[in-house]
Every structure is written in structure tokens, then in C-alpha cells.
Amino acid sequence: MPQVLVYLFGYFLLTIPAFLGLALIAQIGRSTRVRRAGELVLVTGVVALTPVVAHRALEVPALWLAVALLVVVLAVSVARQLRSRS
């Protein structure tokens, strides 16, 4: 596994508690900025995980379903971000 993919996976793992923390703060404080920051953290985490799973899917073809689901989640998240900003 190339070193870049290890770093991307590590970043993805760090985005999980960051997103949960930001979501909790946004829920308690009802802050729109914190909610959007949490959503951006989630989107960047999905972006970081997609090449890692795609690389692994080259060895295990059954994982292409997971890659497709990640791409769908990414597309829906980006669409929601763009819609909420306009």
C-alpha cells in the first residue's frame, strides 16, 4: 500500500471524532457555522477514504460496491453543501 494511502486512511480516521464533536457542538449551540464545518469535515473524510477503498478494490472486486456507495455519498453531500449555500 503506497504511503499516501496510509496518510489518507489516517486522516479519515481523524475525521470521525472531529465530525462527531462538531455535530455535538452544533446540536447543543445551534450554530450554523459549526454544522457546516462538521459537514465539510465529513465530506473531506469521504474524499480521503475513496482512493483507499478503490485501491483495495483492485484486489477484492466485491469492494467496488463500497466505492460506488462512497461516490454516491460524496455526490449527495456536495450537492447538499452547494444547495445550502445558495
Automatic annotation (TrEMBL):
The chain crosses the membrane at residues 6-25, 37-54, 60-79. Keywords: Membrane, Transmembrane, Transmembrane helix. This is Uncharacterized protein. The lineage of its organism: Bacteria, Bacillati, Actinomycetota, Actinomycetes, Micromonosporales.
